[in-house]
Design brief:
Blueprint (H helix, E strand, L loop, with lengths): L21 H32 L4 E9 L2 E5 L6 E3 L9 H5 L4 E7 L5 H10 L4 E4 L4 H10 L11
Parallel strand pairs: 4-5
Antiparallel strand pairs: 1-2, 1-4, 2-3
Length: 155
């Protein structure tokens, strides 16, 4: 008697779900490295701006940017101004990281021109001046509520 021919079963294949080429891996790693570098640089910028604004001899007027209006956060009541489209805006990603919009910074009178230039580069949206008599809050009060008794500040 002859054995009946059995139906041959197909060989079982191993399921490899995540199979990719080396080129694909290198492209993914490169894209992740570029994204990580961008995020890291933005975090450095936010920390550097915070450090510079909190330095000894620096007064700052911080603003809360809500839509098209800028509200100055100071010890008194907030003053709302229409934002100027020509001024630099803080990118949304840096806002998400905790960056703030600075209306102005006053630096100690003894600051060098190089230091003033460094602050202008770090805070393109802000007005950078050497500290006037009375400090930054006095300057802000004179600018927002001018009276005949207080002449406008000279920079």
């Amino acid at each position: 008697m002859q054995a009946e021919p059995s139906k041959a079963e197909p060989p079982k294949r191993k399921h490899r779900r995540f199979q990719f080429r080396l080129r694909t891996l290198l492209i993914v790693v490169m894209l992740l490295a570029v994204a990580s570098g961008y995020v890291g640089r933005q975090v450095e910028i936010v920390k550097e701006r915070e450090r510079m604004a909190a330095a000894t001899g620096v007064d700052s007027v911080v603003a809360a940017d809500s839509r098209d209006n800028i509200t100055a956060l100071s010890s008194g009541a907030g003053t709302t101004h229409r934002s100027d489209d020509s001024r630099e805006k803080i990118p949304w990603f840096r806002k998400w990281l905790g960056d703030r919009y600075y209306l102005g910074l006053s630096i100690d009178k003894s600051a060098s021109d190089d230091e003033i230039t460094r602050y202008k580069e770090a805070f393109p949206e802000a007005t950078i001046i050497r500290r006037p008599p009375g400090g930054m809050m006095e300057l802000w009060r004179r600018v927002t509520h001018p009276t005949a008794s207080s002449p406008p500040p000279q920079s």
